[in-house]
Amino acid sequence: MIFLTLVLSTFREAIAKKIFIGFFAISTLIILIFLFLINVDSIEGMVDLMESSGQEGVKNLVIGFQVAMIDISYLLIITFCFISVSSFIPSMLEKGNIDLLLSKPISRSNIILAKFIGGVLLIFVSLVYLIGFVWLILSSKSGFWHVPFLYSIFWLTLSFAVIYSLIILIGLFSQSTILSIIISLFLVFIVCPVLAAREMVIFSFIENASVRFVVNFLYYILPKTSDINKISSDIITGQPVVSYMPVYSSVLFMLVMLSVSIYIFRKKDY
Amino acid sequence: MSIISTKNLNKDYPSRNFAEKKITALSNFSFDVQDSEIFGLLGPNGAGKTTLIKIILGITFPTSGEVKVFDKDISDYTYKRKVGYLPENHKFPNYLTGEQTLHYFGKLSGLPANEVKKKTNEYLSLTGMEKWRKTKIKKYSKGMLQRLGLAQALLNNPEIIFLDEPTDGVDPIGRKEIRDLLKELKLRGRTIFLNSHLLSEVELVCDRIAILNKGSLVKSGRVDDITALSNNYIFHTSDIPDDFINTLLSEYKAVIKSKNEFQFNANTVTELNDFIDYLRNRKILIHGIVREKDTLENMFISLIGSQN
Ligand SMILES: Nc1ncnc2c1ncn2[C@@H]1O[C@H](COP(=O)(O)OP(=O)(O)O)[C@@H](O)[C@H]1O
Ligand SMILES: [Mg+2]
User: In a mutagenesis test of the B interface, which of A3, A100, A270 is the best target, namely the one with the most B β-carbons within 10 Å?
Assistant: First the structure.
């Protein structure tokens, strides 16, 4: 009950921050655009195209939309949700606020877990809304009910959760919203993509074995949200997934971040 | 029964700059708080009062020493269900209304949902916040926030209530209201732990006090005992001749209040009686002698002053 109250409070906090409302507004806009596109197309153009290219053509088009939706959702999560949740821990730690929270009958580990689960649940619900509606619209129009697209809700939530665990740790250390935002954006926009494509980007001009070792090492220990996205689209397009290593290692990263956060939070004076 | 007891509590904070050594916020602090009393912890700013409350509530950890609440070690956090707390300069989420704030913290204290609703109504009216229950707290004044904070601290029927500077930033009328509320709560059998640097306030409501300075216990006891009789005597006499007034001033260090009234400080009974004999020899008629009570303030200033 106390735990649940804390989990749900993250929802209220996110809604109170305008930035999260922005995320919902844009999601709704995307859903509306899909509705609109499909209806316009039904009159001319696209449907003719679909019919002329047969059942396969329709499926490919739907799958194309769905793969694009993963990148769109991912971008939305990064820009809106990371910024929104980055202030959760710093505002919780504010003087006069943390004192009261810690005087309540809940353990410090559970406070961190509640904040984590609250944030993850929030993004999950938002994705169910966005992806779920887009799926319904595409499916009902095309008659092609492609379930694997719905799995991307899970993969995107996982990517979010992995980075969020780092955001929590940085928040605990620095009590700075800005720092949490900068580091997490740097990681997902620059470090993850570069490391994921390290063979092409870095190794093409660096031969040095020890540098390569360091780069590989970083790749293995850091979260791999770019690779998780790739897995997510492979599942939609029906291509075989080469390796689930990015998932396992990212989950491991998340568990380490959470454990360290809990460890620090349990020791600290407020 | 003793509700709180500490033994040889020490707390050092790491220093904020490298030049200094650590900051000692509490040193060898032992005390206890009894059932159904209002206990006041007094001390100047930085004495360690807030640190003590935070240690008792598990917000800060002691460097060494022992703390027991309800006769149990505080590592088991379940005692917090029976504790209310109003932090110094508390900060509630400002997007909530007064009512939502109480609901939220009530649930966090472990109250069941239907109790939360009932108690919210009860304490909103007890603290006079009924009118503003639907108003966002970012619009509240300091006094209103403090009253809401008090309602929050009382919501879960705590057996002990910790109030850290509860009248800070509250106007005189608000202060009086808060004091009356505290007395009312005491009548209901609640134990109250009050932190304050305002002496008059503590004197008015507390049963027992401890005085803290630089982390050490300076004095503790019942307010009545601590503010015991002083060595000041007020004399009411027949008219005193001008030349004699000068003698009283210069030789006897008396404080002259009027032609018929002055204050004399006698450290022993003999000294007092010798002085009376002297007055009688000068044919001064004594109408009355009153021994003054020491105010907490005088005592506080002399105690803390002698340490600094
Ligand atoms: N988190 C902290 N880090 C370092 N020093 C602290 C911290 N909290 C309090 N102190 C120091 O400990 C001493 C006692 O502070 P405090 O308990 O707040 O006193 P009071 O409540 O009596 O004004 C002060 O010297 C204060 O500067
Ligand atoms: Mg204080």
Answer: A100
A232: part of which helix (H) or strand (E)? helix A225-237
The CA distance from A101 to A15, in Å, is 20
Distance CA B162, CA B142 (A): 19
Decide if B58 touches A, using CB distance below 8 A.
yes
Q: With beta carbons less than 8 A apart as the criterion, state whether B13 and B43 touch.
A: no
pLDDT tier, A53 (very low <50, low <70, confident <90, very high otherwise): low
Cα maximum dimension of chain A: 69
CB A158 within 8 A of CB A247: yes
The residue type of B155 is: L
Pairwise CA distance, residues A139 & A62, whole Å: 8
Distances (CA, A) of B10 to A7, B20, B137, B195: 35, 18, 37, 18
Q: Which CATH superfamily is domain B2-225 in?
A: P-loop containing nucleotide triphosphate hydrolases (3.40.50.300)
Q: Which helix (H) or strand (E) holds B68?
A: strand B64-69
Query: What is the domain partition of chain B in residue ranges?
Result: 2-225, 229-296
Least CB–CB distance from B59: residue in A1, A2, A102: A102
Q: Are A82 and A171 in contact (CB under 8 A)?
A: no
Q: Do A97 and B90 touch (CB under 8 A)?
A: yes
How far does the centroid of ligand 1 lie from the alpha carbon of residue B45, in Å? 9
CB contact under 8 A, A9 and B60: no
* B110 and A CB contact within 8 Å: yes
Q: Between B60, B91, B108, which is nearest A94 by CB?
A: B91
- Specify the fold of B229-296: Alpha-Beta Plaits (3.30.70)
- Statement: the pTM of the whole predicted model exceeds 0.80: yes
- Which one is predicted more confidently, B60 or B301? B60
Domains B2-225 and B229-296 share a fold: no
| Angle at which helices B98-108 and B142-154 cross, to 10° | 30
- What is the domain extent for residue A162? 2-267
Contact A98, A154 (CB under 8 A): no
Ramachandran angles phi, psi of B42, nearest 5° = -110, 150
Bigger pLDDT: B306 or B57? B57
The count of domains in chain A is 1
Report which DSSP code applies to B132: G
The secondary structure of residue B133, as a DSSP letter, is T
Query: If we measure between CA atoms, which residue out of B147, B154, B69 comes closest to residue B115?
Result: B154
Burial degree of B140 (CB within 10 A; 0-12, 13-18, 19+): buried
Structure-token pair, residue A4 = 């649940």
**Cα–Cα distance for residue pair B32/B191, rounded to 1 Å:** 12
Position A48 scores a pLDDT of 60
**Residues less than 5 Å from ion ligand 2, measured at CB:** B 49-50, 88
- B13 CB under 6 A from ligand 1? yes
User: What is the average pLDDT value for chain B, to the nearest integer?
Assistant: 88
- In this predicted model, which residue has the larger pLDDT, B224 or A25? A25
Q: Where are the alpha helices (DSSP H) in A106-191?
A: 108-142, 148-174, 177-186
